[in-house]
Amino acid sequence: MFDRLIEALGTISTKDDAVQVNRAETQLAVAILLYAVIPADRVVLQEEVQAFRSGLLHIFDISDDNCRKLMSQASKQYHQEPTLLAPATLLKHRLSPSFRNLVFTAARSIAMSDGNMHENEADVLRRIEMLLAISIAPNAQIKISA
Prior knowledge:
Elements: H1 2-9, H2 17-20, H3 24-35, H4 46-59, H5 64-80, H6 85-94, H7 97-112, H8 119-131
Helix pairs in contact: 1-6, 3-4, 3-5, 3-6, 3-7, 4-5, 4-7, 7-8
């Protein structure tokens, strides 16, 4: 699915973020990147799922029902094809750096929702940061819990 989307991108979009975030494939790409943080530490906690839901509701103006559907789609898509490259590339080409930073902030919130940053979660966050071509502020460095 995402391979076709990346091929269709061609050139970088000049459309406003507000237009792009209402597209189903953009929302799914964001949801997949956020979902990827949840199973990183091999323990799925309710706090992480709630942070995932909260992040989607914060980023998108969607109903609770649509949020649940998006969460389910992201989980299924990630488990079928657990790569972050395709969704991140789609977002990198379609959305501004400030919006991509918003996505990264939501991902970091998911990782920290249980009060600890597992090294695998930190690794996923670093990959998301790199793939989205953003740079986090020096005072926001990822700290791993022991």
